[in-house]
């Protein structure tokens, strides 16, 4: 806001100086100068409104926390428990341990070794 007022003031000053050079101090302000004067007045009014609003008390953090909308909990969790009771939970698939896998592999190798020793019959 301050930059806009300052820019307007500079433009107004230029317009006033050009009027002084051409027509003298007694000449009436031009339309452009009148528009700049009106715009400057409106900008200052807006600035004053904003300053007055800034001085108004603001809600504290506690007020904002209390005012935040939090919907009430619904009965869905209860219905969910009932639906879980209706369905039986699946048991996890039985998995073999590392030791069981190694033992099975060793047994397979041993069986392969024994089967190769059988005499060949014709």
UniProtKB/TrEMBL annotation:
Biased composition (Basic and acidic residues): 37-51, 64-91, 100-113
Location of the region described as Disordered in the Swiss-Prot/TrEMBL record: 1-122
Protein name as annotated: Uncharacterized protein
